Protein: Cytochrome P450
Organism: Caenorhabditis japonica
Amino acid sequence: MIFFLSLITFLIIPILSYYLWIWSYWIRKGVRGPRGIPFVGVLDKFQNFHKPYGLVLRDWTNTYGETYGITEGVEKTLITSNSEFVNEVFIRQYDNFYGRKLNSFQGDPNKNKRIHLFVSQGNRWKRLRALSSPAFSNNSLKKVRSTIEDSALELMGYLEKLADTGVHVDFLEYYQEFTLDVIGKIAMGQTESQMFNNSLLPKVKSIFSGSRRAFFIAGIFPICGVFLRALFTRFPSLLPSFVLFDIIEKAVTARIAQRDADATKGIEPGEPRDYIDLFLDVQSDVEFFRDEMGGEFAASQVGKVDKHLTFDEIIGQCFVFLLAGFDTTALSLSYTSYLLSLHPEVQRKCQEEVDRECTSPEVTFEQLAKLKYTEWAMKEALRLYPLASIVHNRKCMRDTTVLGMHIEKGTNVQVDTWTLHYDERIWGKDVKEFKPERWEKPPTDGFLPFGLGPRLCVGMRLAYMEEKLLLAHILRKYTLVPNEDHKPLKLVGTATTTPSEVMLKLKSR
Ligand code: HEM
């Protein structure tokens, strides 16, 4: 009896009070919002594959207004679709909001050895960003262009078989084959094209379409997230994302061994073949130092200079590039193609631009830079379908005030981008229309498919280049034609927002 009384007094009551305290956070602050239930908050509402995250937020914004609060397990999150608020958090007050909304299952951003650019924060992020950015410079993009074009031509071979057959196929599947082929070659040491025969594809796809149960559990009980991460690290075959770490580790180890063997034979290292080479060679212009506690900072103070990526960091970077580069780019290509097929006049303008600018058999880096209208069409598709809105968030790292609202350390700010991208005050009355011309004079605010501020997507230029290159090859030979019934896309997904399918056919020009 005494044992049970002590258990209730010292364990159960404090735990219940803690969860009730968090759950009632916004009620106590007088901020409106959907409440959900204690312990869970509204976390369960984000587990429905048929109702993507961004669309759940958009519905709530219709009910609760521009800025409101939710709790997700132990996390307190302020949702906003006010562009001034977003600019304040993502740009002007970046120093107070330099972290992301994270889940313990993603690892400790300050301690975990394989933490990558996306999850890292503070000085560690600065260092990884400075060391990774050269991989996306003009110079590096020029180097990977021909690798991307090889994959584009490989895909063209498959598309050729479809042309003029009248058969509709799911272009999302074709684009996933393409983007995985590209990223496999530029970030994972893959030497030959493995299109339509890539054993990695189901694993990578399941990371985006599979269950988010581990995130759900970790959201409510962070300690379980730490345990699950340790478990999957020990037994990677249990979860696809951990298998990928294993595959990348083998590729990086093999490359180091090969470079060592070359060095022993006196063979000079040639041009970097891919991101693994770039990361092994990378040197930052910024000098980084380590203090006695192992923390990193960039400043001219005493300490050990560390200008390279470690072995684990290279694996982490390749991993995040694989994930971030595969799904998003395939989705962006799919939405653009879908919209082009529904708007023949826009498609014709893109085709005219491609015919005018891309006159040689290969599409050069310089020609890609001239495909302005095609880029507007891609941007307009990303405005209408902000597919990665789930990561448009920041964590408050220091108490502050944003537009008169006090925000406490630890609170997340999440953008409701689907509302923001359809805000008539920013985009005008024709906001629902697919109109690439609006990008001739774009608004200064309210567009964030690639995020905003210092943590803007590092791969944005690679994504635009990859998409333009493939679209240039497709559009100069074919016209994209929609399904006869013109059904609107069905949007699904628990991470990125994905069309369930994008059925199109190809007509030779
Ligand atoms: C259409 C394609 C893409 C979209 C829509 C997209 C979207 C995003 C978004 C919204 C963020 C968060 C930015 C923020 O917090 O402000 C992000 C970050 C990131 N993306 Fe992308 N991305 C795309 C392609 C790529 C590609 C091709 C790569 C690399 C191969 C990549 C690598 C990353 C990385 C490493 C980060 C973390 C950056 C940081 O925290 O410093 N992304 N992306």
Summary: Residues 311-342 form the longest helix (32 residues). The domain at 2-508 is CATH 1.10.630.10 (Cytochrome p450). The pocket of protoporphyrin IX containing FE is lined by residues 117-118, 129, 320-321, 324-325, 328-329, 332, 387-388, 391-392, 449-452, 455-459, 462-463 (CB under 6 Å). Residues 291-305 have pLDDT under 50 and may be disordered.
